[in-house]
Amino acid sequence: MPELVLPTTAVRESFLEAMDEFVAEGVERSQTAAWIDTHAPRWSQPDTFETFVRAVRADAEEDSPRPEWHVPCTTLWWIDGDSYLGRLAIRHRLNDFLLDVGGHIGYDVRPSRRREGHATAMLRAALPWARRLGIDPALVTCDVDNHGSIRVIEAAGGELEDVRGVKRRYWVPTA
Length: 175
Fold this sequence. Notes:
The structure is a single chain. Helices cover 37% and strands 25% of the residues. It is α+β, with helices and mostly antiparallel strands. A hairpin with a 2-residue loop joins strand 6 and strand 7 (167-172). 31% of the residues are buried.
């Protein structure tokens, strides 16, 4: 049964396979693009992967170093046993960019495991995590032509606030 967990080295091999899928698909279409651009060359070594996992987990801490335009972010991985299925990011607060475009929650399902209900289950499972962080409701956005994400967000109770450019902006209750 898939579950949301904090990033872990236990799924390293499957994670690396998933990143290869994102690259083959065209990484720029992925929420995971920044990780791939920054870390991919070093992931092949277990010790550097462990360092990466620690850094991703530390990003949730308020005092962790980060670019000034980033906010604290809890990253969770959707796994089934030792299989990495996707990731979800809960941004603890909104800056101007996140309020307009990015939202509190962003998610990505590995290409080979899409259209199996993982995004819907992952978003629903993340809502209590967001609530514990004091987020209610959560802003979740998607591209206007991403019909799969529209269905995912609406299935989680998302109410469309507006469309800004190419982004649909929904507020999803976390309670």
